[in-house]
Amino acid sequence: MGAHPKGDAVIRDNRIPQQTLGQWIADNPGCLGAKVKDTFDGQLPFLFKVLSVNTALSIQAHPNKELAAKLHAQFPEHYPDTNHKPEMAIALTPFEGLCGFRPVEEIVSFLQTVPELRALIGDVAAEQLERSVSDDPRGVSAALRVCFTRMMKSEKKFFVDQLNMLVKRISQEAAEGKDTSGSNGDLLLRLHSQYPGDIGCFTIYFLNLVRLEPGEAMFLGANEPHAYLHGDCIECMACSDNTVRAGLTPKFIDVLTLCEMLNYTPAPSSSKIFPATQSQLDPSVYLYDPPVPDFTIMRIEIPSSIKLYLVSAVDSASILLVIQGMAVGTSTAAASEMTLRRGSVLFISANESISLHLSSPDGMLLFRACCLL
């Protein structure tokens, strides 16, 4: 849902001459709101998605603006635009993802309990990381970079052999009823069944496993390694399609760029959960406001006791998505009333509001993406 040239949203109302959202915005740039229009050169600055993750999505990171411009100039077929792509995922169901580097103590513990991992990295790099635990943060990041890069760049035949040995060992231990959590056994077997022989299976020893409950979010800034593993989520991001991948994927992988660009700052998984704040003005609204200007997301929970609700005007174009409940929407800007149900998507111009006349007994759950400068 958005106006990126590779996936411009289609307008379903055939009374409107423009066929896509991008064309409509180009003809009505005032709909963005004055500040958004000026800041983002007349473009809608965000992309809004719903993801339903059954098999893991690739190990990836998104470049900052400087790197994006460079990658696009060098390899336009793989990096289609010059923008950065910070993003946020909000869980709709229990959701699992890998995100950011684990605290170094956890990685060191895996290096000691998973000999196949240590073999890939080599004793010299592993010992450097073990010694760095008492070091200053820069020393830790440097040692982590060496270990992760050595693993990601290991010879294909060598890492496939090590991975097969590891999977065989864990499978046997699991069959004997042993606890394999010290080797992250369950996740390893699951990923290996989805992507056999893929180097991405080893990244579980470096990256945090983050579990979100519905309504919880994680924010992924530039250069933050991540992979979504399972569950349904709402996702919002800057309007870009730049992704540097390095594993758990059949798509183009760019290990050198990924290892070079990553943020090697370890942090506990709990620090990856991004809090929502309840709006002071409207108790039905919870705001997810990331540290980037491109987008903000609102979760709107309308209780069953409310039968008439005003989706308030903001000084930005926004996209509204219905997750549950039913209503009839009316707006001075719309030619006729709109029936809204699960899956309905509305584009709302800046400074326009919509009245919802709720018809569902259980209230409504909506998400709204906008740009609050």
Briefly say what this structure is.
The protein has 373 residues and is an alpha+beta fold. Helices cover 28% and strands 27% of the residues.
General form: elongated
Task: Output the structural class.
Answer: alpha+beta
The helix count comes to 10
Give the N-terminus to C-terminus distance in angstroms. 20 Å
Q: Main beta sheet: strand number and arrangement?
A: 7 strands, antiparallel
Low-confidence stretches: none
Determine Rg (CA atoms, Å).
23 Å
Helix content bin: 25-40%
How many DSSP E strands? 19
Strand proportion: 25-35%
How do the helices and strands follow one another from N- to C-terminus?
Answer: HHEEHEEHHHHHHEEEEHEEEEEEEEEEE
Overall mean pLDDT: 96
Task: Supply database-style keywords.
isomerase; Mannose-6-P_Isomerase; zinc; 7-stranded antiparallel β-sheet; single chain; Mannose-6-phosphate isomerase; 6-stranded antiparallel β-sheet; 10 helices; zinc ion binding; elongated; 373 residues
